[in-house]
Amino acid sequence: MARKLPPFAAVKAFEATARHMNVTKAAEEMCLSPSAVSHQIRALEEYLDTALFERRGNKLALTLTGRAYSGKLTTLLDAFDESTRAIRKAGHRPLRVLSTPGFAARWLVPRLGHLEFGNRVQLRVSEGAPSTDFASNDADVVIQWCDDPVPSVVTEPLMESGRYPVASPEMRRREGIERPADLARVTLMHDETMDTWGEWFSAAGVEAPAFPCGPTFPNCELSTTAAEAGQGVALAYDTMVRGTLESGRLERLFDTDILPIVIYSVAYPESRRDDSMIRQFAAWLHEEAARDGVAARPARFARAAERTT
Question: Residue ranges of the HTH lysR-type domain (predicted)?
Fold first, then answer.
């Protein structure tokens, strides 16, 4: 059934006057003239078809109905004010985002200016894999590696990517790298998280080196950074190095790549699934990934969603 509510301006004028028991003070609070306040009170009395004040010369007195009504209105307006302040405060709080350094530097930071509330994102980076223990990680959202499910955490696959060798232009010239077989004799960057050089050599139809020739890093981000510094060749994820390739700091070597996999996902507490700021941020991330053509496939997204329920 539709609500039948009196004009809000008239309600505020009556409540303020009843609280101060003075039209002039109510007018000052509302930034109105006393005559405007008196007009609003008369409009409310006409709407209710009952008197709310008794006029005794220059003094006001609440009727029994006015006293009961004003008490209820003050309680309701106080609650309304408290709820509004809470929402306004929440609307200005920072969004704490935890990610790997590589994701932050190569993908997130360059496009934060496109986000409506990007200036309120409080970005932190982790030394290792970002923790999804929201009871202790001091984060609202985590950009985690892959899309492994975590109990009580919503995991939304964000982007997937193929992988191919990259090197600095200077190293490519120095080592004379012209064909895939040349990589068997140069320094290769390896990573502990997911080293797939053997898979790449197989896809390229080249026999992999018998022993890894090159340093091992904790993750592909560091191995890619080492390649950028001219220290060797790294297997980089296309999604993460497009900007670096465009700048000329790295070059892609050959057309062979490894089939795409999910490399990053958005994670946040199940209990905060309806948090408007988190939902806006996650939606923006998915839009940016889709714009780049690297969004995780819907079928994979659906399977991950099933695992969290």
Answer: 6-63
For residue 251, what are the contacts with CB-CB under 8 A and spacing of at least 6? 166, 167, 168, 169, 172, 245
Which secondary-structure segment (H or E) carries 191?
A: strand 190-191
Q: Which domains does the chain have, with CATH numbers?
A: 8-90 (1.10.10.10), 95-309 (3.40.190.290)
- 3-class DSSP state for residue 229? coil
Nearest by Cα to 154 from 300, 272, 267: 267
For residue 304, what pLDDT is reported? 43
User: pLDDT for 210-240, tens place per residue?
Assistant: 766 788 888 888 899 999 999 999 999 998 8
For the record, the structure tokens of 221 come out as 């981000």
Model pTM greater than 0.70?
A: no
Nearest to 206 by CA among 152, 239, 254: 254
Q: How many other β-carbons are positioned within 10 Å of the β-carbon of residue 265?
A: 26
Element (H, E) at 282: helix 276-292
Radius of gyration of the chain measured on its C-alpha atoms: 32
